[in-house]
Amino acid sequence: MADLTTDFIGIKSPNPFWLASAPPTDKEYNVRRAFEAGWGGVVWKTLGSEGPPVVNVNGPRYGAIYGADRRLLGLNNIELITDRDLFTNLEEIKRVKADYPDRAIIVSIMVPCEEQAWKAILPLVEDTGADGIELNFGCPHGMSERGMGAAVGQVPEYIEMVTRWCKLYYSKPVIVKLTPNITDIRKPAAAARAGGADAVSLINTINSITSVNLDTMSPEPSIDGKGSHGGYCGPAVKPIAMSMVSEIARGEDTHGMPISGIGGITTWRDAAEFITLGCGNVQVCTAAMTYGFKIVQEMISGLSEWMDSKGHTSIEDFRGAAVPNVTDWNQLNLNYIAKAKINQDLCISCGRCFAACEDTSHQAIAMSDDRTFSVIDAECVACNLCVNVCPVEDCITMETMAPGATDPRTGKVVQPDYANWTTHPNNPSATAAE
Amino acid sequence: MTSDVFEPGIQSGRLSPAEYQAQFSDLHPPLDAHEALVAADRCYFCHDAPCITACPTDIDIPLFIRQIATGTPDAAAKTILSQNIMGGMCARVCPTETLCEQACVREKAEGKPVLIGQLQRYATDHLQAQGVHPFVRAAPTGKTVAVVGAGPAGLSCAHRLAMLGHDVVIHDARPKPGGLNEYGIAAYKTPGGFAQAEVDWLMQIGGITFKHDSALGRDLNLEKLKAEYDAVFLGVGLGGVNALGAEGEDKQGVSDAVDFIAELRQAGDLAALPIGRDVVVIGGGMTAVDAAVQAKLLGALNVTLVYRRGRDRMNASVFEQDLAASKGVRIVTHAVPLAVHGNGTVREIEFEYVDDAMKGTGQTLKLPADQVFKAIGQTLEGEGMPDLEGRKIKVDGSGRTSVAGIWAGGDCASGGDDLTVTAVAEGRDAAMDIHMALTK
């Protein structure tokens, strides 16, 4: 039986599944129930400075996009940080941590970009006994208009400065949560490292408008006829998050930084993928908001079963295993040649592959009068679109051509050696144009 | 159709070998991987799901379906089997249409529930096909428990006790373990020797000894068992059969449906199993339907199922009634048997129509019959049993009987439906209570 326990920057938890700072972790009631359901840790919903708490909108806070059968694929929100009193939150954190010493509790914080504000709140947080803090430099709506959240996360110098203050006034691990609403994610990550951060967590939500009401002409969620961009999350953002995680994992100034992966993690497989890209643990929100806290049971059983099947005894066994295989395009092997192959036993003759290939790709699929679909190797560039649109798992596969065989499309013999863009004789420019 | 189907009397070999094969193949062919993913995708992962409440063994159905959906069917199987060690058999024989699938919110939404039963089979088959037994025994407790009856209740109880570290000796009157799973369920619901395969798989837990041809009252007595073992669990089922109370009931050709089903299940060659041309089955439960459908499948030309009340009162579910109808079984309701006619051997059977209050109408119906199966309920057999409630052993919620040290569950015990899945739940719960009693 695989060991799922993690030690992330000295913070131990029984499994790598933490609830991200968000509505699910806003109060003691939720967090206790989350721990009972099996979550390894939580990042408590972001605390603000002492004083009157923020006021949220009193209309819809969420908008959604759906896949087939109303499956929620993407969610956006315009909720702010906690709208409960700071001291109520602190007391609750202290109580829950005392009752669940084996679970991780991280406190998310967002206060103004002034040293005094951080100096004031950090000792209060330290007193709760929580295991660490996460700096909310990512929230893209509302708070950013007040110079906090993403407004800080978009300026690496601010990140470095605030991180330094936190390391100065707080003794436990500091995690910097990054916004994806930036061109190059490595810059804020490097700034966090320079400021002494113990880890980064990413991604926070993405600026988004999920839909427009065509009767009222208001973006959704609509507050009295007006809408604002909100933070986008859920399964739809996972590819963006994984790309950003991988950039940090292999970046010159950022590689080796502990990463807490966030972004659309819904199943054990999503979590495993983030971990292979270097994450020491993962944070989940939308899946819990969609399906409830119990969802973690599938994540635990699935990850455990997969690890057993691969012979991994601990998370560290495969953490980062995919990082060496994330590369720049110009390093991809241009001598690697594959062809699509349709398994006629599995094919249900829907013709989606044909439509995709014939209308939008390389006219490499033939259709017979009796609706048999087959690949024309002489046209197939192995683009994978047919695989992607096929409704049947594994019906269309990409078959690698063995070296020595002749590619019927080019008439050339498949070469056994590796040749990338910079060395390939076909390529007119061996170096990128500057 | 061969001419043999028109031959009157109880005859064997009415069909060709290929026909027998086709007739008795799997009622629901198993889902393949693609079908399972599509079916699993429909589950909403409901909170405090109604399907769980509807399952007598409280299987966490949304969780196991999600485990299938995320590509971990073996984890799904563990979720199922940790609540119901006979999840494989229950996936085949449960009347899901009146249990989990009736409760499914998609039944309410679209009239089409998630295929919970078939998904359960997909997961349990996936694990069991690998011969993997996912549970391990706790440290030995040094206690030994006697389980009487190797049916679903007894096996479920034995497995749970063995897992908790107790040694278990199961006694059964029959040569093979399995109880009704092996002897009493229609062959097309559990083809391919599944019942024995499941028992073999279950026994892999270790610590369970099976003693066959060891019947209570004949080879065993309760007092002695109680003295020899630390606890006793009775899962003896209902060995007796109710009588028709109709004139001429003893004529040749009249027999108990349970015996017919047992004989069919044990038959090496179905072609050698004789069946009447005109078969009448009396009763309205699962056993009646199983007998009627299998009579038809064996090549009987006319099969009539006669029930004394209306269809809505039949214990057989609507699905079972429709299955019977689809196989060509005629269902006659509101009729009670008056007399079996024939010269030594049954020739016809006479019924009187009754109203909803079971009052005779004076109108009668005569059905030609060369074979009559009685399926009007089974009864508890045995002397010196603990106190009864009605005609079954009285038990409390944990399976405790009136006698300290003796527990009971399954069809022989009071309460609950006489379903495989209920028996499994009762066996499991009694085991937990026995464990508490033995380790406190």
Break the fold down into its secondary structure elements and pairings:
The complex is a heterodimer of chains A (434) and B (440).
Chain A: E1 6-8, E2 11-13, E3 17-19, H1 28-37, E4 41-47, E5 62-66, E6 72-77, H2 86-99, E7 104-109, H3 115-126, E8 132-136, H4 150-153, H5 156-169, E9 174-177, H6 186-194, E10 199-202, E11 206-208, E12 211-213, E13 218-220, E14 230-233, H7 238-250, E15 259-262, H8 268-276, E16 279-284, H9 286-291, H10 295-310, E17 338-342, H11 352-360, E18 365-367, E19 373-375, H12 385-389, E20 396-400
Parallel strand pairs in A: 3-4, 3-16, 4-7, 7-8, 8-9, 9-10, 10-15, 15-16
Antiparallel strand pairs in A: 1-2, 5-6, 6-14, 11-14, 12-13, 17-20, 18-19
Helix pairs in contact in A: 3-5, 5-6, 8-10
Chain B: H1 17-23, H2 33-40, H3 50-54, H4 61-69, H5 73-83, H6 87-93, H7 100-103, H8 105-110, H9 116-128, E1 144-148, H10 152-163, E2 167-171, H11 180-183, H12 194-203, E3 208-211, H13 222-228, E4 231-234, E5 240-241, E6 254-256, H14 257-266, E7 278-282, H15 286-297, E8 302-306, H16 318-326, E9 330-332, E10 335-341, E11 348-354, E12 360-368, E13 371-374, E14 378-379, E15 388-389, E16 392-393, E17 406-408, H17 420-439
Parallel strand pairs in B: 1-2, 1-4, 2-3, 4-17, 6-13, 7-8, 7-13, 8-9
Antiparallel strand pairs in B: 5-14, 10-11, 11-12, 15-16
